[in-house]
Amino acid sequence: DVKLKKCDACDLVHYCSDECKQGHRSQHEQLCKERVAELRDEILFRQPESTHLGDCPICFLPLPINGEKPMLSTCCSKWICDGCDYANILRQLRENLQATCPFCRHRVPTTHKELEANAMKRIAANDPVAMRQIGNMRYRDGKYDSAFEYWSKAAQLDDAMAHFDLSLLYEKGEGVEEDEKKRTYHLEEAAIAGHPDARCNLGCHEVIDERFDRAVKHLIIAANLGHDASIQEVKDLYAKRFVCKEDFAAALRAHHAAMDAMKSPQREA
């Protein structure tokens, strides 16, 4: 029995040998590219279950993505919502305790040196969040080559925010040559992982390219995650009749539901 070898890219055809595969390449190449693009779109336009931030590890509610930013604890690389952070501060003041992380109770760093030391410890444990954080520090210092190195390592470990940051480097040409394909690739990887800003950027670029069907898909996915800028873009496209009434109404309902899920008495305090 001959074990057939499938095309590595599209899985549409099988070959009896490498020679057969090579001989069929010219006939199969165009169909293969089209199928690869279809498979990529199936992944790209799948609605994520949550944003890249996920839930607060203390109250288990979705972390907010608009305006107020959750707090990143460098000791454990956990994103903490402002409600749980505020409740922890009140507890420490009431009981006269030293400032500690709301999640792991590690002492809060008081200097930039301590903060960086915490992140480097996490990097030694192969933590992509810490890698991205050090990359952010290097970027703010104007050390774009170093920032690119740390963000690339974090992206290899599937950190959505690192992918988003790399897309900006390739867009601006900071530390790397401007590259539209790489910018789009990293935006797509971030969007697939639930990064609403990346998804919104993709949608806006599709509007510029007048590919409105793809733009609407991107923007509705981000709006469904509770992204304010995206639902506004959907409203604008609805006014221009690029979005049907049913899809617009569904996007509004999903956006409101996502926003409500992010609320709590502690966060509203």
Provide a concise account of the structure shown.
The protein is mainly alpha-helical and 269 residues long.
Main features:
mainly alpha; 61% helix; 269 residues; 12 helices; two-stranded antiparallel ribbon; 4 strands
Q: What is the element layout, followed by pairings?
A:
Blueprint (H helix, E strand, L loop, with lengths): L4 E2 L7 E2 L2 H27 L26 E3 L4 E3 L1 H13 L17 H13 L3 H13 L3 H13 L3 H13 L7 H13 L3 H13 L3 H13 L3 H12 L5 H17 L3 H4 L1
Antiparallel strand pairs: 1-2, 3-4
Helix pairs in contact: 3-4, 4-5, 5-6, 6-7, 7-8, 8-9, 9-10, 9-11, 10-11
Question: Mind explaining what this structure looks like?
Answer:
The chain is mainly alpha-helical. The chain is built from twelve helices and four strands, in the order E-E-H-E-E-H-H-H-H-H-H-H-H-H-H-H. Strands 1-2 form a two-stranded antiparallel ribbon. Strand 1 (5-6) and strand 2 form a beta hairpin. Helix 8 runs antiparallel to helix 9 (212-224). It is globular.
